[in-house]
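User: Structure tokens for both sequences below?

Assistant:
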Amino acid sequence: MNGWILAATVLLGGGGAAALWGVATGPLSRRVVAQNLTTSAICPSLLLLSQGYGRPSYVDLALLLALLGPVGTLVFARLLAEDLEAEQPSAWGLTWTAAAVGAVVVLVLCVAGGPGRAMVKLLVVGALLICGNVIASRALSGGMKGVRDG
């Protein structure tokens, strides 16, 4: 086991446990926020595992997850808009923490990999992950009226 795999294990353990706890307990608003957290924990872990095992195909999985994860959260926000009206979910601290973790992982992997095509793919994954997480959290907290109201 190398440092990349250990870091991915720690990230999956911490983020996965928090997401599982959020999905399994509490009100609907916490469950939807935890669903968004799942993407933010798994995607950087896949990037770290890609470096640790030397398998670039894991970056493609992270790219797909960074693209589709926030879309799934937006779909939940749209479908559950009436149920979420009573209790506005707000997890800005968690959102910015997850975005910072994703940014740190992407920057460390860019430095480790050096310039090239792989770095561009990592930067795209990082941008999608951070922007998607922030947009989905804003939509859940009522910041985008078109998403919540129809």
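Moving on to the next sequence.
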Amino acid sequence: MFEKLKEGREIAQFQNKWINIMSNLGKFNKMKQTYSLNNVVKTQYGYKADILIVDGLRFKELEDIKDTIEDNYGCMCVLNKNKRSNVVYADFIFAEPNKDKYSVITGLKPWEVYLGNGYNGEPIIIDMIKYPHILITGGTRSGKSKMTDCIITGLICNCSIEELELYLSQVAKSDLILYEDVKQCRAFADTLEKTLTMLQHLDKKMEDRDKLIRPYRKKAMADNYQDYNKINKGNKLSTVFVIFDEMSSLFQTKGDCTDIKSLKEEIVRLIRRIAQFGASLGVFLICSLQRPTVDNLDPFIKSQSTCIISFRQNNSKSSEVATDDSTMALGLEQREFVYKTNLSNYGIVPLVDNKNIYSFIEPSLQPNHRTIFIDLKKLKNIKVSKEKIEENSKETPIFDKVDKKEPQLNTSNIPNYVPYKDTKGLKVKEEPRMPINTQKPIKGGKERI
């Protein structure tokens, strides 16, 4: 009982402070009405409430004073509003970032991705069927790589090799090499050439999957790979994740030679194809890069990413490019992030290191397992051996042309050849021969005189 009274008193103080802030800012309509807090609830991280937008006021004006609200309360404020509603869903976060260690969330489906934890301690799970393709941005040592570790480790520990395929690309650094020997990893590309080969393989895979799903789509039986798997339970399609870490170098072509520039342009074209067509075919993108700019962030890939994540940004311009909000990603602590799907919210990546990750993925490690690069190498060797067999099986001509004149006998190509020797001193005895009558008989038995 005492706890409920204490909580009610704290909520009343919180509401009174809200009225004081609005009064000092002069946020009233002509009827002296202001933004009102409703359904205020105390939570583990602070407070949540519904803010009613009264007649004559706008949501944009409330967003403009968010910094002042955060400074006066000493908290982090998150505002979300549906387009056809006059109610704003607000979270006031007072909790400090926690220091919980990473542990694998079990029971996740192949298309479910674990990002981190909310301030209420609950795990943040993104359904890639609903929100395909993830874009992660943030400054150096802000927590991007640790989130990528949590995503990949969670997928490996929850999915078999039949359910999951990982395609990893990291040209700038080598953090993802930790997962190269995982049996679910079908490719690890650390060069532009390997990245292009990997994407060409994926482009062919998408074409093959589309051919499988199209007959069912034509009969209104299946719209995506999940529907196909429900029908073909004995021959299910796996969920494919294509993960790029520090991919900004792929978009920057200034100063590159013509060959490198054309190579990067082809890589970006194939990434765009995955962003455009991959979701329904079970091929999902997770792209990570540092400070986003016009030069290193492709606008089409960003527009196709329905889950936008940003760690700490150093200036308002970078925050606006990353989240379409100039303040949302400013002032974040290390491992703290904001994520946007249909709503915006904040979370934090748990503490994780390589030794911790290795202990989780060790049961799935299988060095020298089958990858697309090993398959291509074997195919190349088979082609070379076939060509050698064909070359050896070709018949060499018995007669060689010398100086384009009369052909001479090439005795080296005749099997069991015995050279001719002149028989000197050998006498040949001439035998008498029977005379041969060459005249034709005359018809009727008469001889011609």
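User: Anything stand out in the second?

Assistant: The chain has two domains: 2-93, 112-377.
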